[in-house]
Amino acid sequence: MARHPKTTEASALAHMQRAIQLARRGAGWVQSNPMVGSVFVDAAGTVLAESYHAKFGGAHAERRVLERVMQHYPKNQIRRGTLYITLEPCGHSGKTPPCLDLILQSGVQHVVIGSVDPNGLVNGKSIRRLRRAGVKVEVGVAQVECDYLIRAFRKWVITKQPFILAKVGMSLDGKITSSGAYHYITNDLALRRVHELRQELDVIMVGVNTIINDNPRLNTRLPGVKHIHHPLKVILDSRLRTPPHSKALDSNTLVACLESAPRHRMQAIARTGAEIFVVPPNRLRGKMLFEQLNMMALLAELGARGYTSILLEGGSYVFTTFINLQAIDEFHVFLAPYLFGASKLPFTYALQYDVSFPHPTFEQVGNNMLMRGYAKYTKAR
After folding, report:
1. pLDDT tens across 140-196, in order?
2. What distance in Å separates the CA atoms of residue 31 and residue 120, rounded to the nearest whole number?
3. Which residues are CB-contacts of 361 (< 8 A; sequence separation ≥ 6)?
4. In terms of CB atoms within 10 Å, which end of the chain has fewer, N or C?
């Protein structure tokens, strides 16, 4: 079926970008599914329905869209329309029925897909089935943006390991902490971005020194956002030095420690509602306390529980350990216009790997600069 003259490349891109925008509304609520958005337009380019995957176990984006369209519009109008989906539709039964069957049932003859589903149960199978049924399928519209939307899901579904995003706020001379008036190095706009990341990602992870020194709540604070998602808080604390009165301790907290941690501290922290998770030790123990924790075992456990993404918020020892494990996938580095000197904490200590960013993006955030990029590791010389 030929594309309707009004469905130009520009309009196709615009509809897919709208679907991406919708998909982001599911951030924090669809774990361990990917964020997905969908838009249906008629032959004249009028949007008839749009939606997104709103909650794990709930209807998928394309199902929500097609059910609305099939309820309110005639079959002929649907047949001549176009369905936009940020991700290849599922063709298997899970928490919900296969969306592919509903697409075929609807009679729509033109489907535009942003990304191929990396899940081995799908991975091109739905696209091939649609084409065999005579449906025109276009793949790759706004693919870079659609791929970015599912970057955590992609890693998790392939490796069963969570995607790790390190958020770093630092001065121009690479310091991540200060004192006195400059308790927060970065500005309010950057802080808002950090809370948007907390809203999106499944887990927030910090070392015990951050808890002792700052006593943070580690929750999500976004004024104006109706549905707030608070990620699971994971504290890396081999010896259980976390004070039981810490603000971060509640039923949404996991404290990772060694079996040798004092029992009375385990009991005190357990009384706050937090989960104590015993992690096996590393065979090669370093000088840093939390390096005694087998981080890969912890990551495997979080992945097995269905957590697809981690926001790593430091501090210096934690960043150093995860870089030396080549475990951080993406960095968001906020640079603030300060120089603090040698007396303040550095971003990292001795690294076994150099980290580069082949395709970084830079953005002015008030008087801060944000660098975002995927990490590439090279053995340090």
Report:
1. 999 999 999 999 999 999 999 999 999 999 999 999 975 544 467 899 999 999 999
2. 18
3. 371, 372, 373
4. C
* Measured torsion, CA atoms of residues 28, 34, 35, 39, in degrees rounded to the nearest 10: -160
Amino acid found at 325: L
Kindly report, residue by residue over 88-117, the tens digit of the pLDDT: 998 876 677 889 999 999 999 999 999 999
* Residue 377 and residue 354 in contact, taking contact as beta carbons nearer than 8 Å: yes
DSSP annotation of 274:
P
Question: d(Cα 153, Cα 30) in Å, to the nearest integer?
Answer: 10
Please identify which residue in the block is written with the tokens 């739905």: 126
Contacts (Cβ under 8 Å, ≥6 apart) of 303: 156, 159, 160, 161, 162
Enzyme catalytic residues: 62
* Other C-beta atoms lying within 10 Å of the C-beta of residue 192: 14
What share of the chain has pLDDT > 70, as a percent? Answer: 93
Q: How far apart are CA 66 and CA 96, in angstroms?
A: 14
CB 40 within 8 A of CB 107: no
Cross-strand pairs, 126 = none
Instruction: With H, G, I as helix, E, B as strand and everything else as coil, classify residue 298.
Output: helix
* Gap between the Cα atoms of 235 and 210, Å rounded: 9
Question: What is the model's pTM?
Answer: 0.91
Q: How far is CA 3 from CA 81, 112, 132, 135, 157, in A?
A: 10, 11, 18, 12, 34
Residue range 37-80, pLDDT digits in tens: 999 999 999 999 999 999 998 999 999 999 999 999 999 999 99
Spell out the alpha helix ranges (H) of 94-172.
99-106, 125-132, 143-149, 151-159
